[in-house]
Amino acid sequence: MKARVHVMLKDGVLDPQGEAVKHALHGMGFDAVGGVRQGKVIELDLAEGTSEADVTEMCEKLLANTVIESYRVELL
């Protein structure tokens, strides 16, 4: 069983990496880009029987900084 966790900065939190990517894209002529938010994807190989609640607990305790990040869990 696999899970994929998408972690993004919450709205209102500054994203310097996203700003750097936006600036680079504009420098390459991609002026249609109005904003960039950069996040991360974490893929987990899990033992059978692991629940979404287990993965959520992993996110709350380690995988996401819930003060400034939000996350979404996908069970695959």
Automatic annotation (TrEMBL):
It comes from the Bacteria. Pfam families: PurS. Pathway: Purine metabolism; IMP biosynthesis via de novo pathway; 5-amino-1-(5-phospho-D-ribosyl)imidazole from N(2)-formyl-N(1)-(5-phospho-D-ribosyl)glycinamide: step 1/2. It catalyses: N(2)-formyl-N(1)-(5-phospho-beta-D-ribosyl)glycinamide + L-glutamine + ATP + H2O = 2-formamido-N(1)-(5-O-phospho-beta-D-ribosyl)acetamidine + L-glutamate + ADP + phosphate + H(+). One of its GO terms (molecular function) is phosphoribosylformylglycinamidine synthase activity. GO terms for cellular component: cytoplasm. Gene3D superfamilies: Phosphoribosylformylglycinamidine synthase subunit PurS. It is found in: Cytoplasm. Keywords: ATP-binding, Cytoplasm, Ligase, Nucleotide-binding, Purine biosynthesis. The keyword Nucleotide-binding applies. Its EC number is 6.3.5.3. Part of the phosphoribosylformylglycinamidine synthase complex involved in the purines biosynthetic pathway. Catalyzes the ATP-dependent conversion of formylglycinamide ribonucleotide (FGAR) and glutamine to yield formylglycinamidine ribonucleotide (FGAM) and glutamate. The FGAM synthase complex is composed of three subunits. PurQ produces an ammonia molecule by converting glutamine to glutamate. PurL transfers the ammonia molecule to FGAR to form FGAM in an ATP-dependent manner. This is Phosphoribosylformylglycinamidine synthase subunit PurS. The lineage of its organism: Bacteria, Pseudomonadati, Pseudomonadota, Alphaproteobacteria, Rhodobacterales. The gene is purS.
